[in-house]
């Protein structure tokens, strides 16, 4: 999404571009991409107004004046291709004079000419995709970049500020590609947004957990951190103040102030607060007619766009001045935003805002009355009748001749429903350590906060390890979305000589291997096409009722009716870890790895166990019978009013605190292991006991599309299959 002056830009039908002029209510449709558009940006100048769009194959600059004239003359408008096959572009930004374009593609930053196809510089210091870029206006040839390695680096060239999936910030000189400065680790979370405060010469960056960092760009300050702001705490403090002001207003003026209801309902689950946008706020322009205004004229104000609303922050005291929550507007169908964009300057005291839904192909065009918003949330201003802080232009003036799209006015909101989200933008944080240098002893951070992390010590022989590494390089099989669902089987094999029930099957994460737990007490591993038995594990004294692959595909956990649990190495037929009957009072079921192979989850009766473990397959020649792997019980979690757990589900592909259980009492219960307790219970989820819970165990948290928090799940029972929304528990 992109906003500038009186224009909004967003993709249409994935590879098309729509630029809408709010003044004339006329849309301009531009075509030139063959793949999904993944990044958009307007130029800084009004005459001519440029817009740049990027996809996997092309980076195109459009002159809107020329394109409008071409359309009026009956011709198809064309843009200037300035980059070809640069890869997945996550962010683009024009230089202050609109002569260059900074393109963040993968781990690299390309400086391109805005007039022709020419690469002026190529910067490749990051270890993960760069996600944002901003140019500095007061110092030329300087570049600042931020990445998921949680540091920032400085190089001298044309000062640009770049933000990426690596939690780090870099400052570059793009004329010489010289690295000027590299910071230490900033945060354990992905940095999603970035802005340069020209007035105070500062960098403002925000992460996926609602944290803001401000760094000084003054030469003798050495990029030191000026402030760290926890927006969650500031929002809570601000909401408490609103409640107090409302109470005082009712007593003194017998009138009720408008307030934002941000109190969390009892029993609800706390979510993260990703900072999607940081933008300058044209604060005082909206109060030019106000007298006795108490706000300091020398203070800078900034918009903070999050997934749940818009905030205005005062840089003088680092406190919130106003808060607009999407959920407070019943007519607004988007309550959780995936992306947002704001106009930097207000027009007639109003700011244009675009938000895209996280779960639907929907975009909302908002018009925020800044003065009305601030008045209703400060005791210094009296309530001004029914003045509304949020509105939009009526739908008949928006895209009047788009019959193939769905538009409707929801109160004061116009919603445009279209095929918007490009699949390529759903880039995710890779599940790997956040520090990649071998000589670093300890960073003190991990991608999962407030939890002690453990890593299996395989100690595999080089020959076996290299064989596994080579096999894992096979291309993952992806299901063709355009095809019909599979209705015919391709192959049928007999796993044993005599009829034997198979109690459980599970593919490895890369789809190359299939594990089967059988009633004859064995575990078989087949290759994906079922042409060869990869391995056979035997040792259980009862039927194997569950199997689970590790995230790195090197380990397999199995549980049996003999009340034992075993962890197997794919490269060795001997179990690496055995937990015997003395550990469990009932049959062990639904064993799986959890939290990216940090823990093991299993069910035993009406409770599930969280186990930490360390795997070591080496043997002592004198004590070959003694296993060197260890396992320790962390905590037991009993299910409410259930005799037995009938199904369990948790995500191991990325860090998630959520564990879902179903009981014999036909209830569905949600546990938050970060809080260490049950957070919600759905009574009578089915007419019969749930025997299967399914979550989307796809990729990890994306800085552009945060999906680590799975909000939808499917349950299966004897009475049918249901799809649940965890936000509403319906």
TrEMBL record:
WD repeats at which positions?
Answer: 537-570
What the entry lists under SUPFAM superfamilies is as follows: Quinoprotein alcohol dehydrogenase-like, WD40 repeat-like
Gene name in the database record: Wdr27
> What protein name does the entry list?
WDR27 protein
Kindly state which keywords UniProt assigns to this record, in alphabetical order: WD repeat
Q: Which organism is it from?
A: Calcarius ornatus (Chestnut-collared longspur)
The UniProt record lists the keyword Transport: no
């Amino acid at each position: 999404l992109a906003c500038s002056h009186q224009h909004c830009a967003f993709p249409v039908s994935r590879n098309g571009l729509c630029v809408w002029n709010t003044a004339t209510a006329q849309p301009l449709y531009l075509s030139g991409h063959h793949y999904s558009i993944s990044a958009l940006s307007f130029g800084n100048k009004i005459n001519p107004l440029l817009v740049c769009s990027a996809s996997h194959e092309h980076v195109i600059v459009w002159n809107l004046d020329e394109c409008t004239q071409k359309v009026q003359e009956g011709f198809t408008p064309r843009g200037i291709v300035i980059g070809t096959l640069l890869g997945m572009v996550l962010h683009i930004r024009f230089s202050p004079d609109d002569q260059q374009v900074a393109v963040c593609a993968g781990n690299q930053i390309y400086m391109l000419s805005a007039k022709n196809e020419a690469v002026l510089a190529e910067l490749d210091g990051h270890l993960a995709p760069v996600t944002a870029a901003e140019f500095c206006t007061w110092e030329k040839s300087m570049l600042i970049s931020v990445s998921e390695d949680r540091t920032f680096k400085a190089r001298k060239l044309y000062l640009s500020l770049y933000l990426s999936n690596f939690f780090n910030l870099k400052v570059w000189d793009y004329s010489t590609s010289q690295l000027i400065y590299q910071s230490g680790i900033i945060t354990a979370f992905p940095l999603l947004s970035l802005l340069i405060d020209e007035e105070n010469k500062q960098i403002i960056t925000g992460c996926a957990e609602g944290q803001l960092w401000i760094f000084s760009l003054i030469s003798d300050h050495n990029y030191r951190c000026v402030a760290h702001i926890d927006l969650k705490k500031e929002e809570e403090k601000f909401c408490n103040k609103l409640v107090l002001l409302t109470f005082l207003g009712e007593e003194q003026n017998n009138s009720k102030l408008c307030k934002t209801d941000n109190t969390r309902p009892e029993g609800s689950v706390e979510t993260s607060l990703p900072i999607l946008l940081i933008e300058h706020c044209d604060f005082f322009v909206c109060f030019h007619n106000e007298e006795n205004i108490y706000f300091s004229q020398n203070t800078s104000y900034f918009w903070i766009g999050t997934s749940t609303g818009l905030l205005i922050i005062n840089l003088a005291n680092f406190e919130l001045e106003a808060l607009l929550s999407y959920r407070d507007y019943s007519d607004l169908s988007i309550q959780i935003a995936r992306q947002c964009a704001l106009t930097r300057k207000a027009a007639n005291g109003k700011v244009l805002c675009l938000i895209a839904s996280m779960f639907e192909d929907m975009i909302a065009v908002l018009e925020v009355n800044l003065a009305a918003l601030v008045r209703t949330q400060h005791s210094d201003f009296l309530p001004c009748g029914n003045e509304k802080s949020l509105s939009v232009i009526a739908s008949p003036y928006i895209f009047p001749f788009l019959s193939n799209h769905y538009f409707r006015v929801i109160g004061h909101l116009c919603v445009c429903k279209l095929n918007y989200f490009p699949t390529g933008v759903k880039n995710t944080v890779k599940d790997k350590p956040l520090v990649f240098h071998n000589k670093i002893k300890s960073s003190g951070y991990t991608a999962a906060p407030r939890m002690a992390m453990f890593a299996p010590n395989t100690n595999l022989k080089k020959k076996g390890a290299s064989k596994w590494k080579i096999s894992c390089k096979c291309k993952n099989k992806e299901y063709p979305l355009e095809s019909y669902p599979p209705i015919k089987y391709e192959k049928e094999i007999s796993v044993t000589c005599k009829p034997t029930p198979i109690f459980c099957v599970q593919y490895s994460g890369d789809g190359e291997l299939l594990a089967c737990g059988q009633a004859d007490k064995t575990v078989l591993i087949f290759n994906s096409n079922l042409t060869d038995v990869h391995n056979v594990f035997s040792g259980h004294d009862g039927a194997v009722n569950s199997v689970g692959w590790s995230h790195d595909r090197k380990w397999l956990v199995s549980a049996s009716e003999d009340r034992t649990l075993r962890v197997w190495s794919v490269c060795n037929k001997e179990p690496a870890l055995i937990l015997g009957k003395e550990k469990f009072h009932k049959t062990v079921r639904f064993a799986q790895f959890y939290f990216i192979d940090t823990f093991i989850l299993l069910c035993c009766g009406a409770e599930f166990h969280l186990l930490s473990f360390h795997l070591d397959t080496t043997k002592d020649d004198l004590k070959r019978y003694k296993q060197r792997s260890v396992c320790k019980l962390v905590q037991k979690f009993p299910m409410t009013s259930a005799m037995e757990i009938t199904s369990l589900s948790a995500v191991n592909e990325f860090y998630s605190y959520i564990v879902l259980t179903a009981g014999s009492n036909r209830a569905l219960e949600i546990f938050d292991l970060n809080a260490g307790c049950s957070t919600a219970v759905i009574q009578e989820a089915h007419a019969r006991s749930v025997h299967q819970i399914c979550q989307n165990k796809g990729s990890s948290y994306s800085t552009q599309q945060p999906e680590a928090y799975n909000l939808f799940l499917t349950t299966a029972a004897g009475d049918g299959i249901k799809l649940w929304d965890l936000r509403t528990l319906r």
